[in-house]
Amino acid sequence: MEKGRILLALTGIHPRRWRELLSAEREVALEPEGASDPSITYAVVWKQRPNLLSSLPNLRAIFSIGAGVDHIFADPTLPDVPIVKVVADNLTQHMTEYVVWRVLDHHRQGMLYRSQQPKKIWHEPPQRPAGDISVGIMGLGTLGRAAASALLSLGFAVNGWSRSDRPMQGVSTYSGEAGLIPFLNATDILVVLLPLTAQTQGMINHGVLKELRKRNGLGGSVLINAGRGRLQKDADILRALEDGTLKEASLDVFEVEPLPKTSPLWSHPKVFVTPHAAATSDPVHLVPIMLRQMAAFERGEKLDNLVDRKAGY
Ligand code: NDP
Ligand code: OXD
Predict the structure, then answer these.
(1) Which of 10, 99, 111, 283 could form an S-S bond across to 147 if both were Cys, CB 3.0 to 4.6 Å?
(2) Which of these, 12, 49, 74, lies nearest to 201 by C-alpha position?
């Protein structure tokens, strides 16, 4: 197979560094130059413009610069070529750090201490062992499993929920619709690391949050969402915080991003907001993986980390 050219189509991310690094081995075109170009065989994308990829007559594969691929499926004329998602130690490590950071902050009462400090309050709440707290990870894939092992090593009890049965040593695993309620009922801190698909959209709603375990050493249930914003209903989270269903939340993703300045989530005392920054795609780490995959594909080898188009992730 001939050495293919790349179309780089990124929305909301500056292409300069990606282009420089990809260009070390291959010719790279940006829009509008690359649109409809028959010499393009690969597209490297983030939220590509609808109908762009179907204009490329010789496209052989699409590479997402993120682990999530919902941004690719938003295109109504997506061509039927393999889609590769990101699996990279660097990204996984960042997500593990985010999850551990947020779990420990809620577990060690960070929100309470931050509210006490300006008032100079010297008050220490009871300290529970990590083993009294169950962290439930929704989405026991690449990122969920890595976070689960880090939490296990800190002594937390860990539950995991996935679409298919995914046993993991030391983790109580649940799967499918039948496993959802038992999983939630056994979970104090819910960590969402699901992909956004037709099945998962909107599933973090008040009804689901109500099923979280109530009698726990934290003084209430906690939600941490670093998957996708449209998995959750922002209004239901606010309601759950108001009526005591949730004690606190850490949110990295939102139904609308950037989170509108008018959203009450920004100033809610029980919400910790980060701007979709849990695990940023770093071209220095990701481009070599993509270039290796392209070269291997041209030698007739299989592409790794392929998206299952039917499942949507
Ligand atoms: P994977 O594809 O490796 O794992 C996805 C997991 O979700 C799998 O365990 C899968 O089940 C499970 N799942 C999917 N659909 C369902 C369903 N309907 N019911 C139950 N479980 C389901 O993805 P990654 O771990 O690599 O990434 C997860 C997500 O994290 C990405 O899709 C992206 O949205 C988000 N992300 C966010 C970032 C951020 O900065 N905030 C950065 C990177 C990723 P099964 O194992 O059975 O297939
Ligand atoms: C991703 C992301 O999907 O950054 O990788 O959200």
Answers:
(1) 99
(2) 74
